[in-house]
Design brief:
By secondary structure, the chain is an alpha+beta fold. 17% of the residues lie in helices and 52% in strands. It has helices at residues 2-22, 86-97; strands spanning 26-30, 37-44, 47-63, 66-81, 109-119, 124-133, 136-147, 150-158, 180-191. An 8-stranded antiparallel beta barrel has the order 2-3-4-5-6-7-8-9. A hairpin with a 2-residue loop joins strand 6 and strand 7.
Length: 192
Amino acid sequence: MKNTIENLAIVALVAFTAFSFTNIKAEKKEIKLDKSKVVWKGYKVTGSHEGTVNIKSGFLNFESDKLVGGEFVMDMATLVSTDLEGEYKGKLEGHLKSDDFFGVEKHPTASLVFTKVVASGKNAYTVAGNLTIKGKTNPITFTMSIYGNKATASLKVDRTKFGVEYNSTSFFENLKDKAIYDEFDLVSDLEF
């Protein structure tokens, strides 16, 4: 009789555990490309430039309304400057797409794959991921906030880790006012 009760208790515990884990609702939410935006900003000794780049595809994974993963692909051919006009806008965009910077012809996309997500507040998460630019992958950590069907994130990226060394003081001396800082910002406003 004692063994039967123990066996029933074990069966109940196993069943409870199995049902507990199978009840977690996993959901993949696709990013609405037409309602989402990624803004970049690069800095140099004499000022800064900013613009946008389009998301080619992306999704966020949730379990029980908690962020647990995500993945994004950026269309590097859509990289544009929003702070310049005319000839200078065209020159900057062409240079950014050249091998000096992002080598868009050889590397038409960049990607971000989440590897770990930890809740850090009511609507905030610390996200670790692998960022790939110009075929080089490096780890990155950033904060993402989720409010309803919208998310925001800010990333600070060291371009030199991805082989983007043009006018970097880390690699070239005596650049003076031609120096471009190694880090640039990416700010995303996403809707899903």
